[in-house]
Amino acid sequence: MELGRRQARWGLVAICATYTALAVAYNCIIPLGYGPDEPRHERYYQWILETHTLPANEEQTGAIAHHPPLYYLLCVPFYALLRPLGEVSRHLIRLLSTGLGLAVIVMAYRLLREAFELRIIDLVGAACVAWLPHFQLMAAVINNDMLASVFGTATLLMAVLIACRGATLPRCLLAGAALGLGCLTKNSVLPLGIVLVPALVLGVRPPAEEVATDEASKAVRRSPTERLFMGALTILVAWLVTGGWWTVRFLLTYGRLDSDPAWPLAAWPDPSLTARVIRAVGGLYRSTWPLTSWIPPAGQWPVGVALALPSILACGGVVLLVARRWRARDLSGASAVALPVLGALALYAALLQNAVFVNPGRFEGARYWLPAVAGYMGFWLPASWGLWRRGWPWLAGFGLTLLMLCNGLSIYWLVAYLNPTYGPK
User: Fold this and answer.
1) Closest Cα partner for 370 from 69, 33, 175, 130?
2) What was the pLDDT predicted at 259?
3) What DSSP string describes 119-174?
4) What is the pLDDT of residue 220?
5) Is the pLDDT of residue 13 over 80?
6) How sure is the predictor about 267, in pLDDT bands with cuts at 50, 70 and 90?
7) Dihedrals φ, ψ of 67, to 5°?
8) Among residues 89, 94, 105, which one has the least CA distance to residue 71?
9) pLDDT on residue 161
10) Residues 6+ apart with CB under 8 A from 98
11) Of 154, 296, 311, 318, which is closest to residue 238 (Cα–Cα)?
12) pTM for the model
């Protein structure tokens, strides 16, 4: 079933409206200061307004000082304007995260338009992003993850456009700027830059419309090697100017992208490598959906198993789609699926390395995966279309119902148990 443009537009509006309603509900339900590191995020932009400087360290300022400053600089004018409203201002500043999430959803839909010819599939992928409970959590509280998701999604989108439509100067500039601004928001965006390498290699192939019609025009056209060099240089310079300088500065300061020192091996529950890998993979899977503690204990295993079925089909679907399009010499179609998923895998590998070798506290830290949310949740249900077309509408309905069920269970458990037990007294 294909939708017209108008139907698709209204479908996207409905998805965004549902997302906004859920995010506002979570905003009202989650007590102020109870989002992940929320007081430390708030203190960062408060410090900027009070002192007109960036916080130097957490011990003296109470701010999450090792983070890049872009999100907090964006918050400063909102905080300055709204702080006379008292606690209400904190709920209103949370809405900035909600608005950033809307940008992610729209860009995810645009990215999926390059990968699939049916708008209904693109809408389902956008809904997967919008209704992911973990995405909802970060859309409802004060944090820099949502701005990182904006620039992460923009990086993936520009990589797909470069690969599918050519490595033009504006696209390369936008790709480098998206990655740079992402790095100026959160270090976890950096691994997504990996996708720009194959995108650029594919993008320097002369598109059909650029094929010269005479010898004179052939002579002035740049060779693929020259276009590759110019594209890479453009992306690198744009990245450095917009935010890469912060990454370089951070690396020179800490010697790595994580400011936390490695935990001693004795601190791990089971120090064997196998146990650490199993714990990290399991924890990252569980926390990708809702936070583990948000689901009533009796429902955690059934929900996790139910979510595994579409996930397994998605993995098979991605491989089949890319292979089928590659064999058909549809490099653009193969790239539009492979590049966002590659970006998600690159970020997942970085998180896995951290959870296994550096910090055991990160084994359920799937919120660090959110910059690649369009690359994994955007393709969670759409990818299985390449594997099971006849039954795909039923699978899509099942998957979206599961996500909404997770949101319903999360809201119930927050109201019925978590807030009364652990919330402010």
Assistant:
1) 130
2) 77
3) HHHHHHHHHHHHT-HHHHHHHSSS-SHHHHHHHHHHHHHHHHHHHHH---HHHHHH
4) 44
5) yes
6) confident
7) -75, 150
8) 94
9) 97
10) 20, 23, 24, 27, 139, 140
11) 154
12) 0.94
